[in-house]
Model the fold of this input.
Amino acid sequence: MKIFKISITVYLLVFAVPFLTQFCSINQIKEINYSNLSIESSQKLLKEIKELGPSLLMNVDSYNILLNELEKYKDEGIVINSLDGITIGANRNYLKMLGHTSEEIKSITYQELTPSKWHAMENDLFRKVMKTGYSGVYEKEYIRKDGTVFPIHIQSWLIMDENHKASLLFGIIQDISSHKKQEGKMKQKLVLVPGIAGNEYLWKFQIKHLSDIVDIVVPDVSNCNSREEWVEAILNCTEGKFALAGASMGGWACFKVAAEHPERVTKLALIGTWARHLPEVEKEQYKILERIKNGHFDEFKQEYLDYVSTNLDSSKDEFIKLVKEGMEFIDKQVFINHLESYLDDFNSEKFLNKIKCPTLVIAAKNDPIFSVEEHEYITKSIKDAKIAIIDDAGHHIMFEQPQALSTLLRYWLMYF
Done:
């Protein structure tokens, strides 16, 4: 068993499961009027919109001005759709990539422009946009007027009417055909699976610093209420083969994916997770579940924030800020559903000897939930697996030691 060790500045223990997330209801999203955005150039404007991501929610008075400004933008398509999919407006580049006129496009829904194999995934993303106001960036395909199919990256936002109710969808679309042709073969895909009630926010540092070598996808697991549903979400978030990494509960789901779908998974990384029955951990998680069900969810969150603020010194302010941002948007029911899912199906030992792909197990030395010894057991149980131990981190490795984790994942991606 080969062991990698990374020593960085000491962090105190973090006792909670990784439930940092940005899921929220529409009325929790701060509305940013168009007047707050720069219109010095369409390129700068689009950059600002993308950087705002889930923080941006446009009102109906703003989007006409916005669409007019972005009409000048030649690199990406801009489209406005009704909530039932009808195209309301689009810029020249959007029309050009699809081969339709402005009149033709108004009689076509985005569902009709999309191959049927993407419909289930896009329905899930539509529900996410209606809930959070933002889809995140994802990949799918479009159908041109001449019938050819081409790959795109797309992200969507809600547009609110004057009564602050969901009205329209605003989308930015990039044709990635030339990118894929230049690469010959598509860049290796990496699927990053978050922990309990988590989303792409948990992986923000890794997405930023690994995207130069892989195409990264984070599956939407917010509606998953069993391990089987997690597996389905992971397998449906992208096509073909992919490298797979999961943190905490994400690792719990990844065991099953790697064991039962070896034709899809090229390599596996398991981060801060578990495989065996752990009576003390399970007992504590049941207590948390009961407490939340009894109406003490806000108290639970506040106690955790107090713990983080009290036990980490001022040099850890950035980590504390990230924790607070994530905690603000926790969805109570998603948290409960996920907690119940893994407590009902806690043990993963049956999957270990079925995993045959190259595997890296990453443990935090100070993780108070899942010990180094548990990770060593996982490593010994998976053929030819290797383990890396990060000395100075607790359970939130992604935020506590983001550079160390990203370095390990880069090594795993390039050399395993």
User: Anything to note?
Assistant: The first helix runs from residue 42 to 52. The chain has 17 helices and 13 strands.
